[in-house]
């Protein structure tokens, strides 16, 4: 009987599936299984042999049963492991791996600039796209019939005095009227002017900064802008110049140029003898402060504004603004950024 049990045990231990194991169990212990049959055959023996043989077969049966039980536990555990592994969900994977969405270069720039200025203590102020003449022009010291009103190519709405804002500067007015100084805000958003070519679209984006405090002077304005532009273009010695200019709402006013070279069609920022205009800025005009109920004898401030689309185009070498707003998935796939590596991270 011994060798027989060995053979069966070996067969059981080599069995690789629960189904095959069940077949073995039926073949040995089932109603007409081999061992069951052996027990049935005991009846043909005489009493003495029956007792001896009976004990032997029962021992065999018990050995097989235990061996089957162990193997069953092992195979069942393995089957469960396989099942769990097969059903495992990798939560770090995209739920839509087929989706190849990207962040628009403008979104990237917006996030990057916001992160930079928030780090420098600015908070983000929001305005609305629909404005009135009072906030877009008058309070900014752009009187009626002033040529600046025409030069902005304003989209007027049917409602009297209402328009699509031509710059983000009305957010300065709304903030100064609503918040007592000190003020440090950044405002980013859509602006509108009737213009359309490779570098102008009727809707584009500006970023505006405003600082109002006591003792604020041109030096603060200069260091704020120099540090930002060197950071943004990632060129530590980016050449810059402040060129006197005019804006009705700042005095003195300046336009800032950065050093570049133009060879053929290639524009290179940071080297060369040419200059590229990048933003407008100045000390907030005392009249503007007064218009907002701030005493210019106590508070001074500076403001700057620039085109978000323009500085995005310059940084990434994009020659044409129009595709920014065409929603062409191929353009976005090529020029967009992975959302998994946010700006400023
Ligand atoms: N609002 C100006 C423009 O649209 C830019 C600017 C903002 C200039 C703030 C000076 C200060 O051109």
Helix and strand topology:
Elements: H1 2-14, H2 18-29, H3 34-41, H4 47-87, H5 105-119, E1 123-124, E2 130-132, H6 133-136, H7 147-151, E3 162-164, H8 170-178, E4 183-192, E5 203-213, H9 218-232, E6 240-247, E7 250-263, E8 266-269, E9 274-284, H10 286-291, E10 300-307, H11 308-316, H12 329-335
Parallel strand pairs: 1-4
Antiparallel strand pairs: 2-3, 4-5, 5-10, 6-7, 7-8, 7-9, 9-10
Bound molecules: phenylalanine (PHE).
Report what the structure shows.
The chain is α+β, with helices and mostly antiparallel strands and 345 residues long. The protein has 2 domains: 2-86; 105-335, Bira Bifunctional Protein, Domain 2 (BirA Bifunctional Protein, domain 2, 2-Layer Sandwich). The chain is 42% helix and 21% strand. It has 12 helices and 10 strands. The strands form 2 sheets. Strands 1, 4, 5, 6, 7, 8, 9 and 10 form an 8-stranded mixed β-sheet that branches. Strands 2-3 form a two-stranded antiparallel ribbon. Helix 1 (2-14) runs parallel beside helix 4 (47-87), helix 3 (34-41) packs antiparallel against helix 4 and helix 5 crosses helix 11 (308-316). The protein starts with a helix and ends in a 10-residue tail after the last helix. The mean pLDDT is 92.
Say which molecules are bound, naming each kind only once: phenylalanine
The CATH class assignment of the largest domain is Alpha Beta
CATH fold description of the largest domain:
BirA Bifunctional Protein, domain 2
pLDDT average, as an integer? Answer: 92
- The helix content, as a percent range, equals 40-55%
The CATH architecture of the largest domain comes to 2-Layer Sandwich
Assembly type: single chain
Identify the CATH homologous superfamily of the largest domain: Bira Bifunctional Protein, Domain 2
Query: Structural class of the helices, strands and pairings?
Result: alpha+beta
- In the residues, how many domains can be counted? 2
């Amino acid at each position: 009987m011994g060798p027989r049990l060995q053979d069966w045990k070996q067969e059981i231990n080599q069995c690789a599936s629960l189904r095959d194991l069940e077949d073995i169990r039926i073949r040995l212990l089932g109603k007409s299984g081999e061992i069951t049959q052996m027990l049935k055959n005991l009846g043909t023996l005489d009493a003495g042999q029956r007792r001896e043989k009976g004990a032997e077969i029962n021992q065999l049966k018990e050995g097989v049963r235990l061996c089957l039980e162990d193997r069953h536990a092992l195979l069942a555990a393995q089957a469960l492991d396989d099942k769990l592994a097969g059903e495992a969900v990798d939560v770090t994977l995209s739920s839509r791996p087929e989706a190849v969405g990207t962040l628009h270069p403008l979104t990237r720039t917006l996030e990057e600039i916001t992160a930079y200025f928030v780090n420098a203590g600015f908070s983000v102020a929001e305005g609305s796209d629909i404005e009135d003449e009072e906030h877009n022009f008058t309070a900014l010291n752009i009187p009626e019939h002033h040529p600046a009103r025409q030069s902005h190519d304003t989209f007027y709405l049917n409602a009297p005095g209402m328009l699509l804002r031509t710059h983000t500067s009305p957010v300065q007015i709304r903030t100064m009227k609503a918040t007592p100084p000190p003020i440090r805000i950044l405002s980013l958003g859509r602006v509108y002017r009737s213009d359309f070519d490779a570098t102008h679209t009727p809707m584009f984006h500006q970023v505006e900064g405003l600082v109002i405090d006591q003792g604020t002077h041109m030096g603060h304005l200069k260091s704020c802008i120099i540090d930002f532009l060197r950071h943004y273009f990632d060129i530590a010695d980016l050449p810059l110049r402040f060129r006197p200019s005019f804006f009705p709402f700042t005095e003195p006013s300046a336009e800032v140029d950065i050093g570049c070279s133009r060879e053929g069609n290639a524009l290179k920022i940071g080297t060369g003898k040419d200059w590229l205009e990048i933003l407008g800025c100045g000390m907030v005009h005392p009249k503007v402060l007064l218009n907002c109920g701030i005493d210019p004898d106590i508070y001074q401030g500076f403001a700057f504004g620039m085109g978000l689309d323009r500085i995005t185009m310059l940084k990434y070498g994009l020659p044409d603004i129009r595709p920014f707003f065409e929603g062409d998935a191929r353009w976005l796939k090529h020029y967009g950024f992975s959302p998994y590596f946010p700006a400023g991270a």
